[in-house]
């Protein structure tokens, strides 16, 4: 990165992990642009509407950012969905829509961002993966497949773009404190936490700190890596 005032783009940055990442990058001095699909974006950030499942929407959002703000150097592909159900009940649509949003959506964003990064001859592609991309999870065949796919994709970007000073990495969270996990009953939460060597859920801020590190000059020689933030849940994978 040239300096701490780079433009950072965070897809799905309007809530949860994405918002924590946006706040962390902003605190590091970056100008942060968040994308959101619906609703109203949080205050304090540049925001642009983008649907990662629609190539034209991705193109329009990038054109707007580039003309009004500048060239994003740090790209955080965070937008994603879940449609959890046991495999015998999982429809083709359940599978394909999750792959389209989480994997193909990340590809659309990274591919479009690469146009500008190649001109700059520097940049960071950071994909938000998941521990289940390595270890799997019952009821998440679609989600696990999408997050596993990010690894092969990021490593291919790393090999293809490395000579231009562009890195590509996957930050892989484990169980995270979000609105979704907060709604679980106490026993289920305890059962999940018991599987984690550190014995607790991760905060969105802990993930955001690692993303900020990967975005920084300190991580300039890290590429093609999976950086786990999972309390030891996926160790060895």
Give the name of the CATH superfamily. Answer: NAD(P)-binding Rossmann-like Domain
Number of strands: 7
Strand adjacency order, main sheet: 3-2-1-4-5-6-7
Reading the helices and strands in chain order gives: EHEEHEHEHHEHHHE
Number of domains: 1
- Shape verdict: globular
What does the radius of gyration come to? 17 Å
CATH topology: Rossmann fold
Intertermini distance:
30 Å
Low-pLDDT residue intervals, each spanning 5 or more residues: none
Based on secondary structure, the structural category is alpha/beta
If classified by CATH, what would the architecture be? Answer: 3-Layer(aba) Sandwich
Question: What average pLDDT do the residues reach?
Answer: 94
* DSSP summary: helix tally: 8
Give a quick account of the main beta sheet: strands, pairing sense, barrel closure.
Answer: 7 strands, parallel
CATH class: Alpha Beta
Binned, the helix content reads: 40-55%
Q: Give the amount of beta strand, in percent.
A: 15-25%
